[in-house]
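Researcher: Predict the fold of Ribosomal RNA small subunit methyltransferase E.
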Amino acid sequence: MAMQRYFISDESINNELIKADAVMHKHIAKVMRQKEGDRVICIDPHKHVYLCEIIDITEGLLKIVETLDDNHELDVDVTLVYGLPKGDKFEKVIQKATELGVTRIVPFLSRRSLIKVDEKKWEKKAVRYQRIIQEAAEQSYRLIVPELTGCIKMNQLSDYLSEVNLVAYEESAKEGEQSTFKQAMNRLTSSITIVVGPEGGFDEEEVEEMKKMGFEACGLGKRILRSETAPLYMLSVIGYERELNCEGRRED
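Model: Structure tokens for Ribosomal RNA small subunit methyltransferase E follow.
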């Protein structure tokens, strides 16, 4: 059985000892019902991975047994700019995007967004979203907890440019465009930003604005994907190209 994994802060480490925070302590003692002598994995903000043994369950105290060579991260940074959808679709996307290796998630309000965001309500929701992201990161053996930013609009999009920048555009798919995404994967070496719209998609004017910023419009194959499917498709392609398509990588 795989060991439970926890993200810890620098402040929780003192020499070879780790003091669990309240949330971690409760999870170890009450949820997992672990006891002294049991072992868990702890990851610090610098991506150091520690095999730890519980030495005091009452105080939530662990000792570091050894440092592990453990890396499950993509070798490129991936920023997902995602048009906020209706209902609980956002929760599913951020969970699965975390599992697929995303580095940063940027909620985006476009002209066709079907929801409005209240700042105070968003702050409350963001706490839940961050918990979903952290749990998904622990479950999928990530070394980082992906960043969740505040909601942005078009005039802030240029702040999130990367080495490669793509916007999924259904009109490109309808026109049969199938090469931009593939060519972008061949150029990718360090970072990529992918932009996916909400249910209503993007209007042509928005896409033109993004192109002026440096984004390339791309299709995602022959089918038109739902807004919650498109980012996961793109992340899966990136993961395949960076981790599984070794022969193609060698040719590049």
